Amino acid sequence: MSIIAIILSLGLLIYLAYRGWSVIIIAPLLALLAAILSGLAGDPVHPMATYTQEFMPSLGGYVTSNFPMFLLGAIFGKVMDDTGSAKAIAQWFVKTLGHGKEIWTVVLACGVITYGGVSLFVAAFAIYPIGAALYRESNLPKRLLPPAIALGAFTFTMTAIPGTPQIQNTIPMKYFGTDSFAAPILGIIAALIMFFGGCFWLKTREKAAVAKGEGYGVHANDHEFKGDESNLPSAVAAFIPPIAVIIANILFTKVIFVEGRYDGAYLETLKEDIHSSYVNTTLAGVRGSWSVYLALIIGIILTIIFNIKRFPNGIWDTLKEGVSGSFLAIMNTATEVGYGNVIKTLAGFAVISKFLTETLTNPLVGGTVAASGLAGITGSASGGMSIALEAFGETFMQRCIDKGIDPAVLHRCISVGSGGFDTLPHNGAVITLLNVTGMTHKESYVNIGMCTVVIPTIAAIVIIILGSMGIV
Q1: CA 188 – CA 194 distance, rounded (Å)
Q2: What CA–CA distance (Å, rounded) separates 359 from 365?
Q3: Cβ(417)–Cβ(371) under 8 Å?
Q4: Contact 410, 396 (CB under 8 A)
Q5: Is 383 exposed, middle or buried (0-12, 13-18, 19+ CB in 10 A)?
Q6: Which residue of 67, 116, 131, 379 lies most exposed, with the fewest beta carbons within 10 A?
């Protein structure tokens, strides 16, 4: 009964999210539905306790950990938009590369900043204004913009390219004793499949739409630049802030916040003074987030300095709109995290996890299917992977040793696999992206799904086969 409850709840969540229902409303209701139905099998369930002690703490924990990233990312995207910097960058790309390269440009732009360590959520905020200006300049269907951003931010730089700092590539390291460059050949192959496969798909959709006479379209609340186009910043001034974000993020991560240069010992001791308490952590535990926060602040400041007189309604109005835009975005994702936390506490979830890992004895197949399957259920690549590895990481590792398979191959297969079914319609990043771009599931999800679910799954299958042949 518990398994049926999970499947029913998840099916309804995916369907209703696709139909445009707010996950902030339906996610907690469907989590409680799953818990109540699961309780019919004999496990005692207390709905209010499930909501207040399981759903909300998980939601709150996500907001606590990630709100600065959403806030600063939204503000950065807004100042780039309102000052005309995004439009100036778009015009430079069109003038330099010519029409027809818009999809490639958006995908590569997202890929560069996410490989540089910028969160995929920040990429959505930062690249959207540029992409929207590009698509509008070339009169391409706006519905193809979210898939291009998703392809660049949610796929090859998230799980495949060797050395990517994204969490989906770093989680397996502590379980398998590997590093972020694990199985570089397999990672590059998977990345190429995702990149070229996704771009090919989107280009075919673009050609079909253009042939039918479909253009950018008219969209309510579209973030079209309303300022004076004769007073746009120069391309150099427009490019400096986003480039500075990438460089600053790398410098803070690799040069400044490193052991030996920055004394982070105080982070490891919980102070008793109620006016000054630090949560027990380490420098390594906060270095990534601190670096992104500071890099975004630098990008925002530089954009303001270079465009002090270009804000159509004043700097304060732009900042307020950026702040407002961050609220819905983070709550959509945090609500999904709360839903996943409730689901993983149900008895049926343990049964599903055990089935995924014990039925498939090949460690590469079993590990990949478990990570991808659990990512689909929880709506999170990192969440699904973490659950799978926490419960069965040692089992996967031992099976690899027994079969003579390099653990680096397992690392790469599980990482790439986690980025498959994670982006089903109820995924928080997908919902955030659609919210940021003003699109709906009905308009854009089929192409998002092809680029972030189908093609990455094909890439995972390919590297499982190659990895089984001894390629690392």
Answers
A1: 10
A2: 10
A3: yes
A4: yes
A5: buried
A6: 67
